[in-house]
Write a structure and sequence with these properties.
By secondary structure, the chain is mainly alpha-helical. It folds into two domains: 45 residues, no CATH class; 91 residues, Homeodomain-like (Arc Repressor Mutant, subunit A). It is 58% helix and 9% strand. The chain has a three-stranded mixed sheet. A hairpin with a 4-residue loop joins strand 1 and strand 2. The longest helix is centred in the C-terminal third of the chain and has 23 residues. This is Myb/SANT-like DNA-binding domain-containing protein.
C-alpha cells in the first residue's frame, strides 16, 4: 500500500489516500476511477466548503505533480456526455435548422454551436457547444465511412442507424 495525493483543481484541494499498486495503476489510466476515489476520500474525510477555503491557501499555485499524483479535473469527467439515440436525432434535426448559418460568414460557428447546445439543454440533454460540434464531426466521419464502403463494388452493404437522416442533410 502506498500513499497517493489526489488533486482536485475544481475545489483546489489535495486529498491523501492509501492505495494498492494495482489501484494506483488503474487510477493513472482511468480518470473515472480516479475521480471516484477522490470523491470517496473527500466524503470520508468530511471536507466541507469551509475546509476547502481554509486549505486552499496552503496549496501552491503551481502544483507540482509526481508520478503518483494525479491532476483530476472534475469538469473533464462531466464533459463526457453519453449520446442517446434521441439526443443524436435532436442534434441532427437542430443542425439542419442552423445549417444555413454555418455557410454564412455573418455568424461565429462557436455561437451557433452554443445556440444548438441551448436547444438540446432545453430538451433535457446536458451538452455544450463543443460537445455538439465534436459529435457532429464524429457522425459525419461515420457517415462517410459507411458511404465509401457501400460504394465499393463487391463489399457487403453496411447499415447504420443515422445513415438515412444524414443522407437527407447532404453531409
Amino acid at each position: 500500500m502506498e500513499k497517493v495525493s489526489l488533486y482536485d483543481p475544481e475545489r483546489d484541494i489535495v486529498v491523501d489516500v492509501t492505495l494498492s499498486p494495482e489501484d494506483i495503476l488503474r487510477a493513472q489510466n482511468d480518470l473515472t476511477f480516479a475521480t471516484s476515489l477522490l470523491n470517496a476520500a473527500v466524503k470520508d474525510k468530511n471536507i466541507t466548503k469551509d475546509t476547502e477555503r481554509r486549505r486552499a491557501h496552503r496549496i501552491p499555485r503551481f502544483f507540482k505533480r509526481t508520478s503518483l499524483e494525479f491532476d483530476l479535473s472534475i469538469k473533464s469527467v462531466y464533459s463526457m456526455y453519453r449520446w442517446s439515440t434521441a439526443a443524436v436525432l435532436l442534434l441532427l434535426d437542430t443542425y439542419k435548422i442552423f445549417q444555413d448559418k454555418f455557410s454564412s460568414r455573418k455568424y461565429s460557428h462557436k455561437k451557433i454551436w452554443d445556440e444548438i447546445s441551448a436547444i438540446l439543454v432545453e430538451k433535457g440533454h446536458t451538452t455544450t457547444g463543443p460537445q455538439c460540434a465534436a459529435k457532429l464531426r464524429s457522425l459525419k466521419k461515420s457517415y462517410k465511412s459507411v458511404k465509401d464502403h457501400n460504394n465499393v463494388s463487391g463489399n457487403d452493404r453496411r447499415t447504420w442507424q443515422f445513415y438515412e437522416v444524414q443522407e437527407k442533410l447532404k453531409m
